Amino acid sequence: MEFMDSSSLHRAGFVGILGAPNAGKSTLLNTFLGEKVAITSAKPQTTRHRILGVSTRPEAQAIFFDTPGVHRAKNLLGRELVAQALSVIGDADVLLLVVDAEHPSPEDDLVIEHLEGNETPVFLALNKIDRVSKPNLLPLIDGFNRRLPLAAIVPVSAKTGENTEILLKEIIGRLPEGPEYYPPDTLTDQPERFIAAEMIREQVFRRTGQEVPYATAVTVEAFKEEEGLIRISSVIHVERDSQKNIVIGKGGLKLKEIGTAARMDIERMTGTKVFLEMFVRVEKNWTRDPKALRRFGYVPE
User: Fold this and answer.
1) Structural contact between residues 25 and 44, judged by C-beta atoms closer than 8 angstroms
2) At 5, is the secondary structure helix, strand, or coil?
3) Does 1 have pLDDT greater than 90?
4) Using CA atoms, how far apart are residues 54 and 3, in angstroms rounded to an integer?
5) How many C-beta atoms lie closer than 10 Å to residue 163's C-beta?
6) Phi then psi for 177, rounded to 5 degrees?
7) Which fold has domain 11-173?
8) pLDDT tens string 45-68
9) 14 pLDDT exceeds 50?
10) Helix H segments across 5-150?
11) Domain 192-295: what homologous superfamily?
12) Cβ atoms 239, 169 nearer than 8 A
């Protein structure tokens, strides 16, 4: 399939990123932006919100929506996350389907089912090609070409950056002509308070195992900016006492480890020294409780 030649006129529009859990959507978004606005981990379903990221260059502004992984949901939280992800289909000028080329998922087909009959241009990013031999990519490319009309298929590595600039230019070529939606220095519409909570949750995902990450939500109760210092008070919510014990760890060492790593990330983001206070609280069965999901921001008010 031939790639499109971008117009010299300015382009601006919205790009919805879709894919199965752990396909590398958030890493790809961060690579496009050159900054970290979406948290990542090796565990699936790390992303729980529709995260907006803005890439601005002289000829265009591409506004990306990173979304939760589309999967066969088993609880209320999962169903809400999938609904968030699929809602982007009707809001985007261009859609970007991200597939793990090393481990294609049966859940890729769930996304494709929702894209069938859709008239929005769809690009396919075959991600993680740094882990796959080129001959093994050809059957994947052929299979997706048969199942879904695509604007283009671009093999990429979000981790190394290989071909990501090519992909971004091709996406820009399909955006509508128009002026910028956001000031040129905008990276995201999310406040620092939200990103700080996500950075804490990222460290829980990275540093705990089994069911604990998926039973965790983080709220920031206070975010106070002082001269040369930001004071943050946060709560890590879990569903059971046993999970609370794991997050805290023996002698509080695991919680200290999580806090130190999160504080360093928040300091890099803000450029300011951070005092981070964290508590762990049991909120029984919050992943099944509509009121708790609204309070934690996973369901619209």
Assistant:
1) no
2) coil
3) no
4) 23
5) 18
6) -70, 140
7) Rossmann fold (3.40.50)
8) 899 988 999 999 999 999 999 999
9) yes
10) 25-33, 76-87, 108-115, 134-147
11) K homology (KH) domain (3.30.300.20)
12) no
